[in-house]
Amino acid sequence: MSKAAFLSFDLQSASGNDYATAYDILRRAGLTITTPTFSHYLPNTVVMGTIADNWTAPMLRDAVIRTFRAAGLNVTNLICGIVIDWAVLGDPVGSETSAHQ
């Protein structure tokens, strides 16, 4: 069983490549820049996905900090949450007006 999670972060003195590395790490963990249904993009530096049912928000936070630091990323702010319900307003994936293209 899995459950939905969200995460938002800031990196200190980061380049575009640093953010690309961060998003790649998160994507490999199942957290993406779209809603879990892949229907809409999320705000900048927010990802969502699914995690194992036995994981908690602190466990996710600690894993992200550890993995980012191992990749040489300096995370300065981080919030993780377990989601029981969500709604979205934003650019649909595939939208011609999307800033994410």
Describe the fold and architecture.
This protein has 101 residues and is an alpha+beta fold. The protein has a single domain, classed as Alpha-Beta Plaits (2-Layer Sandwich), CATH 3.30.70. The protein has helices at 16-28, 57-70; strands at residues 2-11, 31-32, 46-52, 75-83. A 4-stranded antiparallel beta sheet has the order 2-3-1-4. The chain is globular, with a radius of gyration of 13 Å.
Question: How do the strands and helices of this protein lay out in sequence?
Answer:
Elements: E1 2-11, H1 16-28, E2 31-32, E3 46-52, H2 57-70, E4 75-83
Antiparallel strand pairs: 1-3, 1-4, 2-3
Outline:
This protein has helices at about 15-30, 55-70; strands spanning about 1-10, 30, 45-50, 75-85.
- Work out the helicity level: 25-40%
Structural class: alpha+beta
The ordered string of helix (H) and strand (E) elements is EHEEHE
The count of domains is 1
List segments where confidence is low: pLDDT < 50 over at least 5 consecutive residues.
Answer: none
For the biggest β-sheet, the strand order reads 2-3-1-4
Number of strands: 4
Report on the biggest sheet: 4 strands, antiparallel
Net shape: globular
**Count the helices. How many?**
2
The overall pLDDT, averaged over residues, is: 88
